[in-house]
């Protein structure tokens, strides 16, 4: 284990507080950890200082939720080293407003089928700038309707095609979002290209110079595709990163912090840019 550059906290849809994530990294003897919550900047100076006191380098970042206009599919962009946070913060606020509106609709629909007080959901969402499906599921689990986050009840309510409570979130165009990242001085990395079928998008963004890196090592990148991602990175001079996509228990595949990491030599290439 070396640098886990893809981690979420309760500032979005993760299961631990940011301070707990840093302490967990120290307990796991992980030298570097990046806080990349969805569409919010969570890596505060206080966390960096806490990390220093524990022997952990904390890298502030964000995972931007965008869409590929050619396919309509999601495309996630990890961003590190933001110099001017205002442009990215404004974009995050726009995404969170859309997510909050969709989340509120989903909560109201859910309550028609599975009565839960809104306060139970708010307890789980209190640290996040927007309401996620996971927050609703945690309340449903607390109420005894299910004992699993991603199971039959999740699919019944939130399946994107036939979920009883599903409401879509509007995401910005990936190319427009990358322009905002450039304006912020950030380092954009295409996250988990396999997860949303972004292999062609990777080639497009790499060839156009819109991204600086690709997340090669990720639990949902199939082993057979990793050599292709490495080849693409070498061809276009991209940084190569890795991360667990840590959410604690709030995920389909529960994995410990540091399960998937960036090798030291590739972390050092990124560190030179930060």
How would you describe this structure to a colleague?
This protein has helices spanning 18-27, 45-54, 85-113, 118-125, 133-142, 152-158, 174-184, 199-208, 226-236, 264-273; strands spanning 3-7, 32-35, 57-67, 74-80, 187-190, 213-217, 239-242. With 274 residues, it is of the alpha/beta class. Helix 3 (85-113) packs across helix 7 (174-184), helix 4 (118-125) packs across helix 5 and helix 8 packs parallel to helix 9 (226-236). The mean pLDDT is 97. The chain is built from 10 helices and 7 strands. The chain has a 7-stranded mixed sheet with strand order 1-2-3-4-5-6-7.
Strand content: 5-15%
Q: From the structure provided, what is the oligomeric state, counting identical versus distinct chains?
A: single chain
Regions with pLDDT < 50 over 5+ consecutive residues? none
Total number of strands: 7
Please count the helical segments.
10
Rg measurement, Å:
18 Å
Helix content: 40-55%
Structural class: alpha/beta
